[in-house]
Amino acid sequence: MTRVFSGVKPTGHLTLGNYLGAMRQWAAEDQHRSDALFCVVDLHALTVDHDPARVRRLSRQSASLLLAAGLDPELCTVFVQSHVDEHARLSYVLECVATDGEMRRMIQYKEKAVRERERGGSVRLSLLTYPVLMAADILAYGTDEVPVGDDQAQHVELARDLAVRFNQRYGHTFVVPRATVPKVAARVMNLQDPTSKMGKSDDAGPGIVYLLDEPDTVRKKVMRAVTDSGREVVYDRQARPGLANLLEILAACTGGNPAELSGVYESYGALKKDTAEAVVEVLRPLQKRHKELCADPGYLEGVLRDGAERARAMARPTVDAAYRAIGLLEPASETVVNAAR
Ligand code: TYM
């Protein structure tokens, strides 16, 4: 059976981008057709300036939103990264296979490092090595497919490169994974700046629809979306990025096609209104389920505990195999030690 692994980073409140670009496919398709794991990758949240209490809060909330979005613990494994030691164990070994140059070429590193410096902060070493930890997340589970939004494709490519390199040097150990990206809404853009991604770590909210935004807030944000000069509703990502973003959001929410939808609308106002309502309707059941889950924190705790146990058992053999292959001495078992005494 195909093994699927993906994750969300609790650095901010989850957004419509996270949902349309990733979570929706996990719930609608991936968990049904494959052996799938979905992870709140909390170690990744420590790569930038962070408040420990906020990371804890967001980790819990992200896990709850994964379930609210439709992930079913009977069908897939939902867990928190730091509960499974194998991620960090494998990450170090993969750092011994990756190169410094490879890390510095990562687009997200370059962008985030600039942002951190502009804020007057220092760049944490873990921000540079982050893609190796992500590769460890993926490779530890023998993952075939990694369903992600377009912004993570380069990181998955790195995981592939590291798997191939490791296998060539030290013997076949890892499955070589591949990214799967949704056809529509693989990169939802910021409503106020349609040339940049709708990212949860951004400070200001008017261009970002959060999954827990109230319906009226969603409506306001969509109605105020920056559109391009011109009157005709056409789908052209390059020339009309604001309009294209709205058409993609509408298409993703209604199961339509952005180019076809552009022919339906005569005014920007009508398009915005329908997009806003479509987003509100998509978020409604998710918000309701999230509220129910918040009322029963014991349930979530149980799901995460069981998930971590299952994940540990799945990752352990592969990570042990990688340790042996790269030249680390296997710890002697108790029986061998006792026999020698
Ligand atoms: P993160 O937390 O930034 O995003 C989680 C998922 O949401 C997708 N996504 C988007 N898709 C479309 N439009 C957007 N505006 C948008 N914003 C986010 C992301 O592509 C992602 O699929 N490094 C990863 C987390 C991670 C991971 C992993 C993912 C760590 N280890 C192993 C897969 C496998 C990240 O920061 O995702």
UniProtKB/TrEMBL annotation:
<dbReference type="InterPro" id="IPR002305">
    <property type="entry name" value="aa-tRNA-synth_Ic"/>
</dbReference>
<dbReference type="InterPro" id="IPR002306">
    <property type="entry name" value="Trp-tRNA-ligase"/>
</dbReference>
<keyword id="KW-0963">Cytoplasm</keyword>
<dbReference type="InterPro" id="IPR050203">
    <property type="entry name" value="Trp-tRNA_synthetase"/>
</dbReference>
<feature type="binding site">
    <location>
        <begin position="197"/>
        <end position="201"/>
    </location>
    <ligand>
        <name>ATP</name>
    </ligand>
</feature>
<comment type="subunit">
    <text>Homodimer.</text>
</comment>
<dbReference type="InterPro" id="IPR001412">
    <property type="entry name" value="aa-tRNA-synth_I_CS"/>
</dbReference>
<keyword id="KW-0067">ATP-binding</keyword>
<feature type="binding site">
    <location>
        <begin position="17"/>
        <end position="18"/>
    </location>
    <ligand>
        <name>ATP</name>
    </ligand>
</feature>
<feature type="binding site">
    <location>
        <position position="137"/>
    </location>
    <ligand>
        <name>L-tryptophan</name>
    </ligand>
</feature>
<feature type="binding site">
    <location>
        <position position="188"/>
    </location>
    <ligand>
        <name>ATP</name>
    </ligand>
</feature>
<keyword id="KW-0547">Nucleotide-binding</keyword>
<comment type="similarity">
    <text>Belongs to the class-I aminoacyl-tRNA synthetase family.</text>
</comment>
<feature type="binding site">
    <location>
        <begin position="149"/>
        <end position="151"/>
    </location>
    <ligand>
        <name>ATP</name>
    </ligand>
</feature>
<protein>
    <recommendedName>
        <fullName>Tryptophan--tRNA ligase</fullName>
        <ecNumber>6.1.1.2</ecNumber>
    </recommendedName>
</protein>
<keyword id="KW-0030">Aminoacyl-tRNA synthetase</keyword>
<keyword id="KW-0648">Protein biosynthesis</keyword>
<dbReference type="InterPro" id="IPR024109">
    <property type="entry name" value="Trp-tRNA-ligase_bac-type"/>
</dbReference>
<feature type="short sequence motif" description="'HIGH' region">
    <location>
        <begin position="10"/>
        <end position="18"/>
    </location>
</feature>
<dbReference type="Pfam" id="PF00579">
    <property type="entry name" value="tRNA-synt_1b"/>
</dbReference>
<dbReference type="GO" id="GO:0004830">
    <property type="term" value="F:tryptophan-tRNA ligase activity"/>
</dbReference>
<keyword id="KW-0436">Ligase</keyword>
<comment type="function">
    <text>Catalyzes the attachment of tryptophan to tRNA(Trp).</text>
</comment>
<dbReference type="InterPro" id="IPR014729">
    <property type="entry name" value="Rossmann-like_a/b/a_fold"/>
</dbReference>
<feature type="binding site">
    <location>
        <begin position="9"/>
        <end position="11"/>
    </location>
    <ligand>
        <name>ATP</name>
    </ligand>
</feature>
<feature type="short sequence motif" description="'KMSKS' region">
    <location>
        <begin position="197"/>
        <end position="201"/>
    </location>
</feature>
